[in-house]
Specification:
The relative contact order is 0.24. Strands 2-1-3-4 form a four-stranded parallel sheet, with helices on one face. By secondary structure, the chain is an alpha/beta fold. β1, α2 and β2 form a beta-alpha-beta unit.
Length: 93
């Protein structure tokens, strides 16, 4: 979580939770791309591969899956928040 916090200024935050989860709270001003949306992978592939992305979800599972997909598709600077927003809230709130 500390590394994720340190990288926040250099990366684009992407929240891969559902809209209902997103409404419960977020980290800064992220883009929401719902993991369960039928166009999820299409939306990820539309992102600029040159940018740095910081992914997170509730506990880290969905963001890790998204990270793996992005890396397999040519994104080099993509990271995820281990433990998700729950770990973030535990450490920083």
């Amino acid at each position: 979580t500390q590394k994720f916090k340190e990288m926040m200024d250099e990366g684009v935050r992407v929240d891969v939770r559902t809209l209902d989860e997103f409404k419960e709270g977020k980290i800064g001003k992220p883009f929401l791309i719902d993991f369960y949306d039928q166009d999820f992978t299409k939306k990820l592939l539309e992102l600029d591969k040159e940018k740095t992305y910081l992914l997170y979800c509730r506990t880290g599972g969905r963001s890790l899956s998204a990270l793996n997909f992005m890396k397999e598709n040519g994104f080099e600077k993509v990271y995820h928040l281990t433990g998700g927003i729950e770990a973030w809230n535990e450490e920083f709130l």
